[in-house]
Protein 1
Amino acid sequence: MKKILIAFLLLISPVAMAVQPVEGINYSVIGVDSPGKEKIQVVEFFWYACPHCYAFEPAVKEWLKTKADDVEFVRYPATFNRPNVQMHAKTFFALEQMGKPELHDAIMSAMHDRKQRINTQDAMDQFLASHGVDLTAYHDMMDSFVVNLKMQEAVKLAKEYQIIGVPALIVDGQYKVEKAYSWAEKFQIADYLVARLRAERASAAK
C-alpha cells in the first residue's frame, strides 16, 4: 500500500497541488463499482439553469485542454423531479444523439449571459428553432428509446453517486469531489484522485 501511495503522489504536480486533499473534506468515498472501462472516468452532473454550473464551465474547458489521454470526461444532466429539469435533461440527451454538442454552450450562454428564460418546452422549441434545429426530429429524439434509456441511466447514477446538488464531479464511481476554494481547485482534487486510481490500476496489473 505504501508503494501505491508513493507512486500516485509522484504523479501529482507540486505546483498545481500545493496541499494534499483530505478525505471527508475535499472528497468523499462513495465506493460505487467502477464503470469498468479502460479509461478513468471523470463525470460532471449539471443543470442548464444552474448559475454555478455556468460559472464552472470555464474551469471545465481549461481542464479539458490538459486532460490526460487515459481519462474520459462524461457529462450527465441533473434529473431532479421537476418538469423544467426533466425537460432540460432530455434536451441534452436528444441534442447529443443528434450530433449538436455546440448547442450545450449556446443554451447555457442564452440563459445566463442574455437572461433568456428557457424553462418550458415551448421556450426551448423557439430557441432551438432559431438555431436551425429540426423540431420534428428533436421531439422524436426526445421520445426515443435511446434518450429514455439515457434518462434512466442518469437517474440511477445520480442516486448511486448521491447527487443532491450541481455542479458535481465524480471520479470513476469511487470518489465525489467536495469542498474546494475555487472551481479550478475542484479539478486539482479530481486529478489527485485520478492519479491515485491510475497508480492502483498499475499496481494491480503487475
Protein 2
Amino acid sequence: MKKALLVAFALLMAPMAAMAAQYEEGVHYTVINEGPGTAKPEIAEFFSFYCPHCYTFAKEQVPKIKATLPDGVTFKQNHVEFIGREMGVEMSRAFAIAHQLKIEEKMEHALFSAIQDKKQRFTNLDDIKALFVVNGVDPKAFDAAAKSFMVNAQMAKMKRDTENAKIAGVPALVVNGKYRVETGAIKSYQELLDIAYYLATQK
C-alpha cells in the first residue's frame, strides 16, 4: 500500500518537475525584482488599446485566463502609455475611468472595437467621453471620475508598474510583481499562460 502511494505521488509530481525544468530564467522569464513579490499571487497583463495583438489577446486569451485562473491567484490589467503618443496617456485614463465606474469589460470592448475595427480616431479626452456616453455613461459621472484622485492614482501606478517591469512590448504578462514572461521563446499563447501559471506558484 505504501509503495503504491509513493508511486502515485511520484506520478503526480512528475509533470510539475518537468514543467519546472522546462521553463528557464533568462529564456522563458526574467526576474525583474529581487525583493519580495506581491503579497498574494497575481498575474498582471500589460496592454494598449492601440495594439492589434492586444485586441486578439483580449478576445481569445483574457476570457480563458479568467476561466482557468488557479485558486488564490488574481488577474489584473494595466494599460501602457507608450503607444499612441499623447493619446496613450488618455487611453490609460479611459481604462482607469472605466475601472472606477465598474464597467471595465464593457468599455474595454468598446474602446478596442472603436480603434481596431472601426478605425475611429481619438484626438482628446472629449472624444473618449463621447464613446462612454454612447455606451450609457452619464457625462457628469465621466467628468467626476476623470478628475478623481482614484483615477489619477491608478494611472500613476500603471505607469510605475510598466516602468518597473521594463515593459517594451505588449501584450505582456508579469507574475507576482517579480517575473516578466518572455515571449521570444514561446510557441503559442497557451504556452504563455502555462508559464504564467507556473510562475504564480513561485515566491
Protein 3
Amino acid sequence: MYRWKLIYLQAIVITSIISLCGLAGIAISVLATGIQSGFTFDLLTDKPGYLILFAGLLAWIPTTIALLHGLKIIRVLKNNALAHTVLVPSFQIIQRCFNVISIITIGLFPVLFVIADQDDAPGIVPLAFVLILIPVTLSAVSSVLQTLLKKYQTTFQKEQD
C-alpha cells in the first residue's frame, strides 16, 4: 500500500512538471507577442500583466527545480533506502528554491499594489501577501521534514548498532 502511495505521488509530481512546462510555453508566446508589438516602458505601466507574467516565468525555474528534487526524494523513498547523503541536500535545494520564489513574489508586490490601486480592488493586496507567504510556509515545512529525517536516521542507525 505504501509503495502505491509513492507511485501516485510520483505521478502527481510528473503531471505538475508537464503542466507547468505547458503554461510556461504559453507565457513565453504571450510575452513574445507583446515584444513584437513594441515593448516599451509605457506598455509595462499601462498593462502590468506583462510584469506578472514575467515574474511567473522567473518563479517557474525554481519551482521546476524543487519538483525535480521532490521526484528524487520520492525515488529514494520508493527504493526503501534512507540515503541521508542524498535526501538532505535535496531538501536544502528545495528550501532555497522556495526562498527564491518568495523573493520574486516580494518583488511582484508593488506591481500588484499598483493594479489594486488602478482597478480599485483592495482584495488584491491580501492576495499578494498570501503569494509571499505560501513559499515561506513550504520552506518551513521542508525544514521540518529535513529535521525529522535526520532524527529518524539517527534512531535508525542506533537500532542497527
